[in-house]
Amino acid sequence: xxxxQPLSADVVIVGSGVAGSSIANELARAGIxxxxxxxxxxxxxxxxxxxxxxxxxxxxxxxxxxxxxxARHPPNQMTPNEYLHxxxxxxxxxxxxxxxxxxxxxxxxxxxxxxxxxxDFELRSRYGQGRDWALKYEDLEPFYYQAExxxxxxxxxPAKEDLGSPRKQPYPMDALPISYAAQQFRKxxxxxxxxxxxxxxxxxxxxxxDNRPTCEGHNNCMPICPIGAMYNGxxxxxxxxxxxxxxVPNAVVYKIERDDANKRVTAVHYxxxxxxxxxxxxxxxxxxxHCIETAKLLLVSADDKSPDGVANSSGHVGRNMMxxxxxxxxxxxxxxxxxxxxxxLETNVIDNFRDGDWRSERGAYLxxxxxxxxxxxxxxxxxxxxxxxxxxxxxxxxLASHTVRLFSHNEGLADPDNxxxxxxxxxxxxxxxxxxxxxxxxxxxxxxxxxxxxxFKELIGLMHGRDEQWTPGxxxxxxxxxxxxxxxxxxxxxxxxxxxxxxxxxxxxxxxxVFSSVGTxxxxxxxxxxxxxxxxxxxxxxxxx
Amino acid sequence: MxxxxxxxxxxxxxxxxxxxxxxxxxxxADEPDAALIQxxxxxxxxxxxxxxxTRPGGKPFAGGLKIATPMGDIVSTNITPDPDHGIGAYxxxxxxxxxxxxxxxxxxxxxPAMPYVSYSGLTDGDVKxxxxxxxxAVKPVAETPTETSLSFPAxxxxxxxxxxxxxxxxxxxxxxxxxxxxxxRGRYLANALEHCxxxxxxxxxxxxxKQDQYLAGGPLDGWYAPNITSSKTSGIxxxxxxxxxxxxxxGAVPGRSQAAGPMGEAVEHSTSHLTDAxxxxxxxxxxxxxxxxxxxxxxxxxSFGQATAQPDIxxxxxxxxxDVTELKGGAVYDANCAACHGYDGAGxxxxxxxxxxxxxxxxxSRPDNLIMTVLYGVNRTAGKTHAFMPGFDGHSDVQRLSDxxxxxxxxxxxxxxxxxxxxxxxDQVKTFHKK
Lengths: 545, 435
Fold this sequence. Notes:
Helix content of chain A: 25-40%
Strand order of the largest sheet of chain B: 1-2-3
Distance between the termini of chain A: 33 Å
Binding site for heme c 1 (chain B): 49, 52-53
EC number (chain B): 1.1.99.3
Cofactor (chain B): heme c
Strand content of chain B: 5-15%
Number of strands of chain B: 9
Helix content of chain B: 25-40%
Organism (chain B): Acetobacter senegalensis
Shape of chain B: globular
Strand content of chain A: 15-25%
Largest interface: A-B, 41 and 35 residues
Largest sheet of chain A: 8 strands, antiparallel
Order of helices and strands of chain A: EHEHEHHHEHEEEEHEEEEHHEEEHEEEH
Largest sheet of chain B: 3 strands, mixed
Radius of gyration of chain A: 23 Å
CATH class of chain A: Alpha Beta
Keywords (chain B): Cell membrane, Heme, Iron, Membrane, Metal-binding, Oxidoreductase, Repeat, Signal
Oligomer: heterodimer
Shape of chain A: globular
């Protein structure tokens, strides 16, 4: 491979998920040369749909996506895990899953596209907890909208349902129709509680949009939208390629090379699947490789000049690991049938515990009424109760139509002790260490989860529920954040308010890894908005140059 | 999105091109009355002028649509009333000559993709109304599309004079078209305005419509405008007037057919805007057109197939994420079509997604329209309904199928739900790619 032309571009991006591919698209459209290095392979939807149909365990989010050996991702959420090794008192609460392949983890997400609240960026100054971001909501607002247009987000009329994040424009698409189950749930909450159920903003088509069809409610957004009605990063990959960006699949970056002064990045090096090494030079570099892999790459790149890893003079690379920890319960409603599972998975949220003065004591949370098909759960419950024959069929029908599933997203908090390190014992076939994460739930999150359990019990009572099944302990919501935390002070943070590393002037990070607080909604829209802001910064600097 | 998108009339030698007059003489005189202008607007809609005279994303009637022909690209012209770039300098007489006779203001001849052989049937009063609307209600656009340049001999516009003598022209109508009785009104709409025959009538060796095979079907731009004569087996003689009205109004009749491609555009821009009375007149006329039989023993296109009984209880081996090998027809269907059209081919219960059996596109003897639909999808708005199916060609964001996969799934669908396996090959699919 030594005879090949050296790769070089104005901007070299590591990672082709929503962050990397949307930056590539913006830059390519501005006439800037871009190379995107993706550790995983090119993929296509039809094989995932076939895998999903052949899969026995349908709710397995990672199931249809068996990894390649040179770019492994966690095979499941089991602890111990074959790839992401979690330790500490709450190891199981940090057993995240994600995907390493073209388009990234948005191949399986529920499309929840929240903007954060202004307060989420000011957690320390408003509530004395955690950290403030080095930017304000207003700085991100235009990029939130740009991200919503790019992804195709539907949401409620802000005049009728204010979600607390000020908007200058309406959502690009009208809200989804509300499913029957959700209508029943909304009615109950409105009539019997002081709370409300809002329409969750969704990166999902409610009309034909961006050459993709309208959502038909197949109800398997996770693990795979079978028709392309939900956004995933592959669309941005395609758009970026059409605009001239070059994507290199199966390119596992393992080293970030800097100049003698250790101020500027000069190249990144990647292995191909046969461990052939390649060097890619550029003017700017963006690491957009997911919270866990981004920190891993910075740490793997340690050398004499940066013995603790690249961009890590603060020692905070890999620290402050956060998530939205979940509490989950399913139960059988004693009220009339809900028939969940008709429509997208997650569209209805109680948002009354998203913000308040109590955030000085305990974390915020969202409650999702999960609108998923409950036939598998109903079947195992009916069998466990000993039903057979016609009675079994009737019970499955009854239970499937009366099952309610609730889960929460409880706010984590930046704690430097919650830390990602490189495994000393586990390496992949290229010799790159697996990631390891020590995790202990912050008290702030534990208190929040306790509050959620109380709320769930109240809701179960209101619905005359029985056969409660609580998911034991705490479970990860796959929203890892914080591993290259943003801050004003280079001594205790990795990137500044523009996601530029404090240590290296031409190295940016586009990932939830920069979040200073994990916020009160699903992370993806904020990842996309930050990425588009990085693209904006790069466009300005490259056009000045 | 490219500046212009090609629209190919494969069967047409050449297409029309009205160039802006060079004179700065202003033709507009007295303001005509509102009723006349309104009538002109309706007629322009019925004539579907916008279909060719607007490029995708362009301003209405400013031209710029590329129409590919064997002789080269023809670019539709700006027919807004801008005096320099459009037809603002045209007098009503100039306008009439170009619309009905294919002769532009400077005396040169138009190419007959401009369906003046159809518009020749317009009444004097309707030409006047059209002129009034174009001059007074269409917004002038000051842009000139790139000029058509064809290869010899088609670039010699005077050659068209000879063609005009040989070609069939629609005889002019007289009187007030608004007062025509139903069947005459239907014929007028079909021929002088909607110009159905431009696509649905096969052409002879000089590429003039064969009037003895009126509406017997013809190819265009990869699609095939089918036989819509009253033949009960080869045409649409088994349709009721209401069926046809519904089709023209909404673009779909569940259990019979749905419009995509150029017909989808015709429904969207033209027929869905017609009055009920006009739709009934048009439908009644079309349904009494002389039958053209294709093959003996043929069955109607919408009479094939039935729901397949295939329980979907299975498990199987999973493929690794880098395995993107081509799938076979049944698997392509399963992974890409079944989510909307159903495992059994029955479509959606609300009929938004059509069934694949009892479907003229699948039951046709030619696979052309099914191939085109798989490659380029459906994108048709009529009334409040936006019918959309993504395409699966090499630019799809949903799934990019190889030519072999497209061929395989077309063969699978037609064998399963249609008129038998047409044995389409990957090479054949390649010929359907947009240039």
